[in-house]
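Translate sequence into structure tokens.
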Amino acid sequence: MIEDSRWRGYAMVVSAAICWGVMATVVKLLFRDRGVDPLILVVIRADLATLTLFAALALMSPARLRIGRRDVWTAAVVGVIGLALNNFFYFQSLHLTSVATALLLQYQAPILVALYTVLIQHQRLRGRVILAMGLALVGCALVVRVYDPAVFRPNLMGVAAGLGGACGFAFYILASRVALRTLDPWTLLTYAYLSAGVAWSFVIPPWRILAHGFDLGMWGAFLAVATVGTVVPFGLFISGLRFLPPTQASIVSMLEPVVAAGVAYVLLGETLIPLQILGGALVLAGVVVVQTA
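Result follows.
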């Protein structure tokens, strides 16, 4: 039964990584081709995700909308420090650098999670977990072509934003794991995004967003980012954390750059060179190894 639960957790995190990988390409297109400001997209994403979550739970599971006062504060911490800051820094990194650079920086989060478990929680990392992390990190670097200056385009602000995103993602993983002791995953995600949306409303009020006059097609793209790229993957990931330790979950989520490269190949006509394919194989090998840890 425990083994079945673990596999369920792995399936959830893999599905989340697939959704995030697709979203990375869509978001970059919105920045590059439609001139959308990253901060505007962060705020719209939080607002639409909140509305989607409340509407879905109200229709399908109203009981999940009930939450205690103490849990509201827990969800607010996860939402503001974890989700809001991670989303902001990640989108800034996507805007200031390349998709490859932003993804590689974002996926330093598993290292931060592992360091926390070792230094703060005094846990020992198994050899297989360390091997899996090494395979995934090397594979990720090859997938995003870190060795190619034409693709990997770091700059100081972009790198700082990317590392900020990694810190936010690591905090989200660790804080969510703690919050899930008393909260249902979807309840936590709903109130976390509500908190993020409220926090962002003080930075950019709703009427300022409406003043941009985005057309219906753009709102459709925003809704896709908020649902397929946000509500679904974050919901799956946070549900997977009930069954998996944070370090293992963060390693499995490193499938995102592999998916993003595949999506860019299919949708944008970008080429996949042998080293990228090797990198994808290494990430997959790391995911397989961590499942046996």
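Note: The chain has one domain: 2-291.
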